[in-house]
TrEMBL record:
This is Uncharacterized hydrophobic domain-containing protein. The keyword Transmembrane helix applies. InterPro entries: DUF389. Pfam families: DUF389 (PF04087). It comes from the Bacteria. It comes from Geodermatophilus obscurus.
Length: 178
């Protein structure tokens, strides 16, 4: 599993919400917000520098981007992808068999949406900035809601496991005596 840099604070926020830990929730939300603001600001500055060097201008915002155009055209599939990302990410982190670099890529559109926000901000692409912002908002909300629901379901199921485990241990001990 390859997790995007935003997934750790999102997972921390989800855990904090499920376990009602306000301090952890505040810290995770702050890390998420500060991380995105700093990343967007730095990317905008680099874009401004490249624009100043004459490498490109606002016309790049009008260029066809068939592979990444979905980032600034959020739709119902944006919600579906965000929810699936949230479920897959939480299951990866909570699975005893979780391993890095195997499985789905978590951060399909969050980081690209933030990058597009920065570039459109630097190149004065107001409409594109707001569409990328909408995509980022959908992604973050979808991932967070799915992560909270997944963790809450796991918690409810895991609470039942201790009732089963002692019976299994007893059965195993009884078999070993015979």
């Amino acid at each position: 599993m390859v997790l995007g840099p935003e997934f750790a604070p999102l997972a921390g926020l989800a855990v904090a919400l499920v376990h009602r830990r306000r301090g952890i929730a505040r810290a995770a939300a702050k890390a998420l917000a500060v991380g995105f603001v700093v990343a967007i600001a730095l990317t905008a500055l680099v874009t401004l520098a490249a624009r100043g060097l004459g490498w490109f201008g606002p016309e790049v915002l009008d260029t066809a981007r068939p592979q990444t155009g979905f980032i600034t055209r959020p739709d119902r599939w944006s919600v579906v992808v965000a929810v699936l990302v949230g479920v897959a990410g939480v299951l990866s982190l909570t699975s005893a068999r979780s391993s890095a670099l195997v499985g789905v890529f978590i951060s399909v559109t969050t980081v690209p949406a933030a990058a597009d926000m920065a570039v459109s901000l630097a190149l004065e692409g107001g409409d594109e900035f707001w569409r990328a912002s909408a995509q980022l908002g959908i992604d973050l909300a979808g991932i967070l809601v799915a992560a909270v629901v997944t963790l809450a379901l796991q918690r409810a199921l895991w609470r039942r496991v201790p009732q089963v485990v002692p019976r299994l241990e007893t059965t195993t001990r009884e078999r070993s005596r015979t």
